Amino acid sequence: MDAQSRGRADEIDPADQWVLNPRTGNYELRLADSAAQARPKVSAPRRSPSAPSAPTTPAPGVPKPRRGDPPPGGRRGGRSRKLGGGGRKKALVITGGTLAFLLVGGSVAGYLYYNHLNGNLSVTDVAGAGTGGFKKDQPINILVIGTDKRTGAGNESYGDKDSVGHADTTILFHVSKDRTNATALSIPRDLITNIPACPTKQPDGSTKTIAPTKGTRFNTSLGQEGRDAGCTMRTVKELTGIEVDHFMMADFNAVKTLSTAVGGVPVCLAKPVNDEEGSHLKLDAGEHRLAGEQALAFVRTRHGFGNNSDLDRIRIQQQFLGSMMREMKSKETLTSPKKFLSLAEAATKSLGVDSGIGSIGKLTDLAGELKGIDTKNITFTTLPVLDNPAEPEGKKATVVVDHTLADPLLQMIRGDVSLTEVEKKEQAAKEASDADAKAKQDALLQGNRAAAADVRVSVYNGGGPKGSASTTLNWLQTSKGVTKSSNVGNAPAKVGATQLEYAPNQADQARALADIMGLPATALKVGTADAPAKTPMKLTLGPDFQQPGAPLAAPVPQQLPEDVQQAQADKAICAK
């Protein structure tokens, strides 16, 4: 689609088209003559002395703007851009720009120009790969993908222009249930893993299942053999045990447009950089504000920092991402209509999403869930890996998961433990392990046991494997004689670990069921008041539950191993 058909004949920043009419005191949309016939002039109501106001009639579902708020976005603009370009050396920052846009979007969501921005989005049906929609009372997991497909004017020289693209940069963005913190987990592109069978939607509406592949690079989960972003979502779930709600994929041009729209991204260099053979980045040591091509060069460089590996480059890009997020959440950005509108244009033009969040309205709902997260509570980390032992020394090109470090990290993410609250969690764990606390827990299991036939319990699934509640009920009734048990289905909310809730006058039943199920004292939750006769206890199966009769999985760790790389988004770190 050309510029004329998008309603904008010239490359004009939409924010620049809203100008103050000194005669009326209103902000008005001034269109170029070549496009004026395509859209009527739109005026905003009179403004307060401090700032212009939004249109009097907001889009459906958008709160009515208050007097004194900035005007909405400009007209439909720019040439249409295809989804998916994400340079191998830059996609992390692009996808991070998308995250940063979401993190600030909720605070100004009421002023988005819905019809225009909706037209910028590219939406994909991932054939059931995700959950179908995030829930307000549960953690949110968003898979942010950057590809190395070379699309967009001026980007043909960045590697193989004919490549169909790979999942070159991937971040699993986990938002906590209480919306106070988030973890951004980078997955190395050269990780050897298994790619499961993948149903993909075809252009004619049919579904084609792509066969699974074992022992291959993670980045082949996208693009190769016709795989779409849903295949990458399924691969991440199998790799991490974390179910993904949605995906986002961005055009690598966004690193240039977003960094420019925000007025440049501050970076710090511990030493000068002169990358003559790669990105051609040349900067002195110290602080810089990078935008456009220079920002792109910073995140593309392979030879400026660390030992020239992709893992070191991920760290540098995470530092850039954190700085971009800080800049986007700054007062200077949020109070500038021009900056915000330019950011909205850049982010939506570079954004591809699944149908579950395939509109500005749905993205605004998501942004509302994220807007309260402080950058000090956003942690960047990378899935711990080791050199692939199957490759000869001196020719290491791929990596494998380092389970010693990765397993506790993934357990913490699955258990919704914030990496920024480790100190508090450590103290809580220490107190729980004190002799007095342990004695109180052990006391719960002391005393009489009820007969199995007298145990009344309702079984819920609160995060265990699918069908766990019904399987456990059948096991209790047919194998263990707990005939007064029932299956009530899924719990109202997921739990971090399996738990048995009971009243003080049900202690003998609780002890009996704990013996039968193999529950530790920490799983027993006693109430404060006695229950009426024939009231069942409540057994909620959590993610630590595997199958009836099997010991529960190890408790979620509250402390990361020291060697797991992590950095908070609020920290300005000098690249080395």
Q: How many distinct beta strands?
A: 25
Shape: elongated
In round numbers, the mean pLDDT is 77
Please indicate the percent range of residues in DSSP E strands (runs of 2 or more): 15-25%
How far the N terminus sits from the C terminus, by CA atoms, comes to 43 Å
- Lateral strand order in the biggest sheet: 3-16-11-4-5-6-17-25
What structural keywords apply?
576 residues; alpha/beta; eight-stranded mixed β-sheet; five-stranded mixed β-sheet; 15 helices; 25 strands; 19% strand; elongated
How is the topology of this model organized?
Blueprint: E1 18-21, E2 26-29, H1 33-36, H2 91-105, H3 114-118, E3 122-124, E4 140-147, E5 167-175, E6 182-187, E7 192-195, E8 198-201, E9 207-210, E10 213-217, H4 229-240, E11 246-250, H5 254-261, E12 265-269, E13 273-274, E14 282-283, E15 286-290, H6 292-300, H7 310-328, H8 331-334, H9 337-349, E16 351-354, H10 360-370, E17 378-382, E18 385-387, E19 399-401, H11 403-414, H12 422-433, H13 435-444, E20 457-461, H14 468-479, E21 485-490, E22 499-502, H15 507-517, E23 524-526, E24 537-541, E25 566-568
Parallel strand pairs: 3-16, 4-11, 6-17, 20-21, 20-24, 22-23
Antiparallel strand pairs: 1-2, 4-5, 5-6, 7-10, 8-9, 11-16, 12-15, 13-14, 17-25, 18-19, 22-24
Helix pairs in contact: 2-5, 2-7, 2-9, 2-10, 5-6, 5-9
